[in-house]
Amino acid sequence: MSEDETRIPDEGKDWFLQLLVDAVNGTTSEVGLTIQVSGLLVSGTLVSGEKYFEGFAEALAAAQADDKESAEKHRAAFAKYGEQYKRSEGNGSEEKKALPLYIHLKDARFYTPGTKPIPGNKGVWWRGRISEVSGFILGVLDIAEG
Predict the structure, then answer these.
(1) Kind of pairing, strands 7-8 and 97-98?
(2) Cα gap 95→72, rounded to integer Å
(3) For residue 25, what is the DSSP state?
(4) How many CB atoms lie within 10 A of CB 20?
(5) What CATH architecture does domain 3-49+96-138 belong to?
(6) Measured in whole angstroms, how far is the alpha carbon of residue 76 from the centre of its chain?
(7) Could you tell me which of 76, 80, 82, 72 has the C-alpha nearest to residue 106?
(8) How far apart are alpha carbons 10 and 98 in whole angstroms?
(9) Strand 97-98 vs strand 102-111: parallel, antiparallel, or unpaired?
């Protein structure tokens, strides 16, 4: 990691998870991830904040399919929040900045012991605070049929 890429870890948060999220932000990279949050397992694909807001905006617009003008207005409004996650081309003088505070997953499902994953039909867009994550593993949980 070059000095320009150095980020300042935030106490009380998993610096390693913050670095993983930071590595994905501003890119098209995706990583299967399962995290433990408040006694639940949340399993999905780690994506950049930009991709999260684009996907969230598309899902919101799709839910308003009967009103195309309103749908487009809401899609554009929410998608713009992802712009803060774009990597600048930079001129080599980028200042050190804090690591990310939020994690973004696509196709997320929630697991508790002895129950089927929620939602059962498809995954959802999920955003959560890194400070609330108590552990994580690489990979997505497989949905057992039966």
Answers:
(1) parallel
(2) 36
(3) T
(4) 20
(5) Roll (2.30)
(6) 19
(7) 82
(8) 7
(9) unpaired
Q: Say how far apart CA 28 and CA 54 lie, in whole Å.
A: 12
In this prediction, residue 35 carries a pLDDT of: 97
Domain map (residue ranges) of the chain = 3-49+96-138
- Does the N-terminal peptide bond of residue 117 adopt cis geometry, omega within 30 degrees of 0? no
Degrees (nearest 5) of the Cα angle 51, 55, 61? Answer: 145
Contact indicator for 144, 37 with CB cutoff of 8 Å: no
pTM: 0.81
> Which residues, including other chains, have CB under 8 Å from residue 5's CB and lie 6 or more apart?
none
Q: What is the pLDDT of residues 69-93, one digit of tens each?
A: 888 888 888 888 888 888 765 544 4
Q: Calculate the alpha carbon distances from 142 to 34, 39, 44, 65, 135 in Å.
A: 11, 19, 10, 32, 18
The tokens for 47 are 């994506």
Task: Dump pLDDT digits (tens) for 107-126.
Answer: 999 999 888 899 988 899 99
115-124: long-range contacts at Cβ-Cβ below 8 A with a sequence spacing of 24 or more? 116/143, 117/43, 117/141, 117/143, 123/44
